[in-house]
Design a protein that fits this description.
By secondary structure, the protein is α/β, with parallel strands linked by helices. The protein contains 12 helices and 8 strands. Helix 1 crosses helix 11. The C terminus is likely disordered.
Length: 271
């Protein structure tokens, strides 16, 4: 059965799309047929991080408008035959896409893929609400900063209200040295506040930025690096493998930040 997973975040700029590209490429490299859907209408970036921007001719909107066939809008990655990319709309599009339309497109793909990852717009606007209509799983990407955690908490609450209860947490851009000096939230702090299972910890490193600018997910690097291992381990946990968090070496931070969130609502109640 195909697993359809939305990858989302509360705050923009936390590495959500980079995470989508690297988890998607890792799944394909592990032998799973994987489709990546960029659902960020008007602000598409996943194609850039995959290095596929020059191959886009048609989009999902063209398929829905019957301007092309489904296969014409689908882009196969030449580096990894089990990976495909599907842009929902062009970068300049302002035409809204409904949840039913996305569901229709996903239903056409489901028989052909083991995993479908939907890269959602950040925030809680209509684009996000539309993207989560077609999934029953989610990955929430955050950075260890108060604004990111606060916004992610809101996103998690909304998804729970939509009966999306299977979620995994990826903490991006962690700096162990700053955690040790209590200048950054620790992993333990983030888990305690958000209350969903941790599946990934990604270090803050310029290597990821360089790889993204080249349009090459860092998991394609020939040399083994800490960020590559981190994304691969995250993917292994996603598919159900038990992988130790060897990349985790953080200390507990002070309780100051926890107190900031002490008034956050109980997600088991109404949203």
């Amino acid at each position: 059965m195909t697993r359809v997973i939305v990858i989302t975040s509360g705050k923009g700029g936390v590495g959500k799309t980079t995470t989508t590209a690297n988890i998607g490429m890792s799944l394909a490299r592990f032998g799973y047929s994987t489709l990546l859907i960029d659902a960020d209408v008007g602000l598409r970036n996943l194609d850039l991080l995959l290095g596929l921007e020059n191959r886009i001719i048609y989009t999902g909107l063209d398929v829905l408008n019957e301007s092309c066939r489904l296969e014409q809008a689908l882009i196969k990655d030449k580096r990894q035959p089990k990976l495909a990319f599907f842009p929902l709309a062009s970068n300049r599009s302002e035409v809204p896409v409904s949840g039913d339309q996305i569901k229709d497109l996903i239903n056409r793909f489901e028989d052909n893929y083991d995993y479908i990852l939907v890269d959602s717009p950040a925030g809680i606007d209509n684009g996000f609400l539309t993207a989560i209509e077609c999934v029953n799983e989610a990955i929430v990407v955050v950075t260890p900063e108060v604004p990111s955690i606060r916004d992610a908490d809101r996103v998690i609450g909304i998804m729970m209200s939509k009966n999306i209860t299977k979620m995994g947490l990826v903490v991006n851009r962690i700096r162990p040295n700053m955690v040790k000096t209590d200048d950054m939230m620790s992993i333990e702090d983030v888990i305690s506040i958000l209350g969903i299972p941790l599946i990934g910890v990604i270090p803050d490193t310029e290597k990821i930025i360089i790889a993204s600018n080249r349009g090459e997910p860092i998991v394609l690097e020939e040399k083994t690096s800490l960020p590559r291992i981190a994304f691969e381990n995250t993917t292994r946990r996603l598919i159900g493998e038990e992988v130790d968090f060897n990349e985790l070496n953080s200390s507990l931070s002070k309780n100051i930040i926890r107190r900031i969130f002490s008034t956050l609502r109980d997600r088991t109640g109404s949203n």
